[in-house]
Amino acid sequence: MMMTLSLTPEQQQALGKVSTLYTVPSVAQALHSSTTLRFGLIADPQYADAEPGTHHPRYYRNSLCKLDRAIAELNDHRLDFVVTLGDMVDRDWASFDAVLPLYENLRHPHAMVIGNHDAQVISEHLATRTPAIGLPKSYYQFSLPGYRFIVIDGNDLSLYCTAGNGEQRQQAQAMLNLLEQEKRPQAQPWNGAVGLRQLEWLENTLHHARLHHETVLVFGHYPLAPENRHNLWNCEQLVEMLCRYQVRAYFAGHDHEGNYARIGNTDFITLKGMVDGADRLPFARVEVKNGELTVNGYGPEISRVLPLETPINAY
User: Fold this and answer.
1) What is the pLDDT of residues 132-177, one digit of tens each?
2) What interhelical angle do 235-244 and 196-211 show, nearest 10?
3) Looking at the chain, which terminus has fewer C-beta neighbours within 10 angstroms, N or C?
4) How far apart are CA 223 and CA 19, in angstroms?
């Protein structure tokens, strides 16, 4: 049974079936394979009933067919779970009506990361309620023997916060203003940050995982490295923490071109966006065995074999 995150009754009622995005995946008690962790990754389907973008090669309507094909392929493999790295939809509350039924066909436990487009659509929907309903937080953890999986919420401090989130939107605007003054590339209104309470929760979770000698994998929408205009506003703070706790890998979406960096013993992997191109269909299966991480890329997604200890490299 799926466990819903701590949505308020008002949030639960206003979100309706979209509240399924705020659930912790119910994974098995043990790995399907005694030696290898296996999971799937999807990034930025970004569906909308809209014409292709004029400034970006985004084919919004095509994402339904693409997502259906990706789910069918992932269903053919024995996986422990699947993660969507954000931006299930591009715009319009009605877009969820078309996308959510496709995920009902997924045979694996599903972990959802809330992307900036998801957050904007959800926030605009909640803003129609009186009194104002805040954008729900979506950071959580789940585990399998020997592994800890952490999903972070990069919309925690963002311009998508509403009056129902208290002063968090003002805090986000102040952080963005400072980054703009410092001419930081990630100083973009469509990015966000991890707030103080979430940072404390993250460090406590990483500390607990270290005490139990667990391999940690972290999933988020906004990239953390290398330096990029799509990165989380406070990406440097997150990189320092994840590397200090020897997190094995961090997976993100948001930058549709994809990216990669290795810092210390941590791999930072950004998947390509599914919505880009009329027929391009990037997604991935990942395997972890004895610390070695293998990304099996589909379509234009890059396949990688990443040993536990390799020279620092970025490309």
Assistant:
1) 899 999 999 999 999 999 999 999 999 999 999 999 999 999 999 9
2) 10
3) N
4) 25
